[in-house]
Amino acid sequence: MTNPTSPLAIIGLGYVGLPLAVEFGKQRPVIGFDVKPDRIAELCAGRDHTREVSPEELTQARHLEFTDDPARLVEAKIFIVTVPTPIDAHKRPDLTPLIKASETVGRALKRGDIVIYESTVYPGATEEDCVPVLERVSGLNFNEDFFCGYSPERINPGDKEHRLTTIKKVTAGSTPETADVVDALYASIVTAGTHKAESIRVAEAAKVIENTQRDLNIALVNELAKIFNRLEIDTDAVLRAAGTKWNFLPFRPGLVGGHCIGVDPYYLTHKAEAIGYHPEVILAGRRINDGMGAYVAGRLVKAMLKRGIPVAGSRVLVLGLTFKENCPDLRNTKVVDVLRELSDYGVQVDVCDPWVDHEEAVAAYGLHPVKIPKEATYDGIVLAVAHEEFRNMEADGLRRFGRPKSVLFDLKAVFDDELSDLRL
């Protein structure tokens, strides 16, 4: 079907696509394609602003070429699509990037080629939404002239321990022969091994429930945190005590953002509703997690009022904007929910994040992060993201930004309970 040394094309060079292109590029010819000329220029210069791949790793991928020219894709025999699959303002799946990528691949598709999708989708999307686009644009017939595979991404941005090669890879193909080829392809770079699923739909479903399960578990502890707060019980102390049992799952309350956990459940619920089933538990968990930004802001405001701090016109410093610690990824960060809610209370809010690109923050959310906050300026300080820089400052260091009666809200439970004024 394909030669082991035949050129491979990666479509989309973000957090998922670039590490994949680099690993394959150490072994075989790879065309790394992205529609953003700035991204291509950056990578050609040996830089990766996502910090997922080091300059040294880029150098090691000696068979990898970067391009924004779609005409180059015709050289490939295997295409791997790694574009984002977001949701729109109404929490509905937005397949626009996936469809556009399929059109681009379709124009380069030839007989005998394989198209593999890694983007998170609902079960059936590859064969029901993407394949018709490939057929229409290429004029070729699915499973006769070309074939498809699916291998869901499991990249964890900012995680230097669990990397592409050390995370077991689920694979699938549209025919038994294709499944074997796809599995062997990933097995050549993934040292942790592969799991060949029975079908593309099984692999799609497996991916979407991975993060749905995490979302529901976090929703549970978020709801528990709200209950314990009303009972005036320390949630962290409860979790530590419960965690002494061998099978207790160590989930913590907090904001649930990012490109996966806060998004993937909506892909599954969308498909469920399309077939006439209204999912209750999954959507209930989503409602709890989507409401945590308002809950955090409300708790801070209440604490400020108890200290006699007028809320309207007060100043609050939010430390951290990315969706997780030690990572520059701003996608679907729920910190912005806290910022907007505080602004609605009439609070003047500053946000500081050493990991964030200023221009990206402006473009994505209209925010202008401060580089160095002024000391003795703020009535409230929220440690929203536990970047190493903030941890190293310790609680006393963070308090220097506050006025005498200011409230320190340790959202991530970084410091001991007695060192902060609020925790979830």
Descriptive overview:
Helices cover 39% and strands 13% of the residues. By secondary structure, it is of the alpha/beta class. α7 (200-230) packs across α9 and α11 crosses α12 (335-344). The radius of gyration is 23 Å and the shape is globular.
Task: Give descriptors for this structure.
single chain, 424 residues, alpha/beta, 8-stranded mixed β-sheet, 14 helices, 13% strand, globular
Summarize the structure.
The chain has 424 residues and is of the alpha/beta class.
List the helices and strands and how they pair.
Blueprint: E1 8-11, H1 17-25, E2 30-33, H2 37-44, H3 55-60, E3 64-67, E4 78-81, H4 96-108, E5 114-117, H5 125-138, E6 147-150, E7 169-173, H6 176-187, E8 194-196, H7 200-230, H8 235-242, H9 264-274, H10 281-290, H11 292-306, E9 315-319, H12 335-344, E10 348-352, H13 358-365, E11 378-383, H14 388-399, E12 402-410
Parallel strand pairs: 1-2, 1-4, 2-3, 4-5, 5-6, 7-8, 9-10, 9-11, 11-12
Antiparallel strand pairs: 6-7
Number of strands: 12
Report how far the terminal alpha carbons are from each other.
55 Å
Q: How helix-rich are the residues, as a percent range?
A: 25-40%
| CA-based shape | globular
Uncertain spans = none
Overall pLDDT metric: 94
Largest sheet: 8 strands, mixed
- Total helices: the number is 14
Helix/sheet category = alpha/beta
Note the run of SSEs as H and E: EHEHHEEHEHEEHEHHHHHEHEHEHE
Radius of gyration: 23 Å
Task: State the strand order across the main sheet.
Answer: 3-2-1-4-5-6-7-8
Taken as a percent bin, the fraction of beta residues is 5-15%
